[in-house]
Automatic annotation (TrEMBL):
The lineage of its organism: Bacteria, Bacillati, Cyanobacteriota, Cyanophyceae, Synechococcales. It comes from the Bacteria. Keywords: Transferase. This is Acetyltransferase. Residues 12-155 form the N-acetyltransferase domain. It comes from Cyanobium gracile (strain ATCC 27147 / PCC 6307). The keyword Transport does not apply. One of its GO terms (molecular function) is acyltransferase activity, transferring groups other than amino-acyl groups. InterPro entries: Acyl_CoA_acyltransferase, GNAT_dom.
Length: 158
């Protein structure tokens, strides 16, 4: 008799990122984005007030995350990452929408981010959530690629 199939995995759950998540954030950052931040930068990001961060987990695994900085009435989205094997499942959209809602709840009326000019999936996601390009940062990324500066009015809702 064949073994029964394994039970289905639970749906990913959303929770705030905390300092104890620094190692998991570093690992996801490296896998999804090539390692934007060091472990020390992740620790600072997760310890400081005014820097909301959210993660989507399935069991012990961090599948997606988004983080930002609250500056007066603006949410500057610093990072959105999804594990490469979890892409195209709506996880990036979900974690970003929740971060935008958290920023709005904490008084942000607008949100901004930079996205690589060649990042078609990212540009499509941000556009679907209402972001519009307001400018370009030439040579912004380490590889020399330009960044599109995008803004959205959070009063309109994600």
């Amino acid at each position: 008799m064949p073994a029964p199939p394994p039970p289905p995995l639970p749906a990913p759950t959303l929770s705030p990122l905390v300092p104890a998540d620094a190692g998991a954030c570093l690992a996801l950052d490296r896998a999804a984005l090539g390692g934007l931040w060091s472990l020390e930068q992740w620790r600072r990001e997760l310890e400081e007030e005014g820097r909301p961060g959210l993660g989507l987990r399935q069991g012990p695994d961090l599948l997606a995350m988004a983080s930002g900085w609250l500056v007066v009435d603006e949410l500057h989205i610093t990072l959105v990452a999804v594990a490469p094997d979890q892409r195209r499942r709506g996880l990036g959209r979900r974690v970003l929408q929740e971060l935008m809602a958290a920023g709005r709840a904490r008084g942000a009326s607008r949100a901004t981010l930079e996205v690589a000019a060649g990042n078609g999936p990212g540009i499509a996601l941000y556009g679907a959530l209402g972001f519009r390009t307001a400018g370009i940062r030439h040579g912004y990324y380490r590889n020399g690629e330009d960044a599109l500066i995008q803004w959205v009015n959070l009063a309109m809702g994600p």
